[in-house]
Amino acid sequence: MTNPAKPIYDSAAHALPALSELRELRQYRFLLFQLIRRDLVARYKRSILGVAWTMLNPLGTMLIMTLVFSNLFKSVESYPVYILSGLIVWNFFSQGTNAAMVGLIWGGSLMQRIYLPRTIFGVSAIGTALVNLLISLIPLTLVMLITGTHISLTVLFLPVPILLLTAFTLGFGLLLSALAIYFPDVAEMYQILLTAWMYLTPIIYPEEIIPERFLGLYRLNPMYWMVKLFRLPIYYGRIPTMTEIAPALAWAIGFLIVGWLFFTSKSDEYAYRV
Amino acid sequence: MLTASDVYANPPPAAAAREPIVLLENVSVQYRVPKERIGTFKEYAIRALQRRLQFMKFLALKDVNLTIYRGEVIGIIGNNGAGKSTMLKVISRVLRPTIGRVVLYGKIAPLLELGAGFHPELSGRENVYLNGALLGYNQAEMDEVFESIVDFAELRDFIDAPVRTYSSGMYARLGFAVATARIPEILIVDEILSVGDESFQKKSNELMQSFQKQGTTVLIVSHNLTKIQEMCQRVAWLSRGELKMVGDPTQVVQAYREDNP
Question: Which end of chain A is less congested by CB atoms within 10 angstroms, N or C?
Fold first, then answer.
């Protein structure tokens, strides 16, 4: 059968899934915006303080950690700033990856009814986490002012670590959510992994207490580099060196590519599986 | 009795000149159902090593050939499990066929289970935009039709209340109003006509007819044979994944009834 018109969809036309997904995502950018908006608005809809919780949440954790640990880590100057800068990075990662996983499972019921680009749940989850990260820069600035920490011009470097962190988290989140579709246990296992991972990353304790012989292992941890890159311009007031940026860049690009390729190569199967 | 291949050989005369909008060529869909539920890595790894991963292969659609023409109203009938829903899923891009090819020459507006994707905490207004976005529309397209959605759903006084406060009828009306806000090229209707009270049903029937006048292709899946006969120009009968018969509604429905006394 011939038809002069160009088809809108042809199931037999297999373009590269990794590329066609990008095109579809672009077409659905209004949905992306709506999903991020929904997640931001709906979460606090019934609370009186609303979006302020995005700022109060890390502040609360910081306060508790400071009370508990400030005695132990006396050597660390303006400990609240140290810990808050680390927590912001960690919260972004753990919230973003968890939301990507939950989002795809939630989206499963929708994916059985209508066509949607499969990556939209992961991308919108990371987008929501990114907005939350930007909002939490406000309490960070406040804490810096209150504790009298010098705010150096190096903070202008922050877009770079934020960008790398976003790329890494998106890649990791896509990989994780694809796995969670096949093995529901992954979602539970991941919570334990996250706890262990957080304590293996210098967030609440200073890097100096890491024993020399473990330093090599620490440097294999991508989150070690993400936290470091974000903290340097804020807490230490210096721009990271190339040898500090390179590992973070490699992890970010590596995970983004692997995660995107793996996730999109399976994208036809999710509707069969969820 | 007319079979699928006869339909291809002898398309209805009126349809011959018409332009196809949905094309199903030798479409088969295979579900792989694991014989036992395997949910953990450990079990999976052990079984994969032992090569004991067993799946039941199950064909939900078998070699279906069907051409739907622009502007027609076509009904799909069949018993439960005959493959009707799978066929809608293949057409609405939810599933890619295991074998065969599906081609669309128009945009699909799915109307499966209304209000899916609504967020209970968000207001009706916010959900209209969210739902429109899920259907693939953009901001400008939704702005254009927002007022008519509110009017059609008869929810002017409640549009800024969270939808968790809505009754199930209000919920469904809003979902229907969003899905039909813009004149779709292909409208898929899955057992939807039973939604809402009588006056709303009348309204949605009228809307469907006005769409059809404006060139929308309508696909209806229903167990209500009388309704199907009333509304459709052609009916396709699916039985155990195979297309048994396509053609004149009265003939197909009669054959279906004889087969399922």
Answer: N
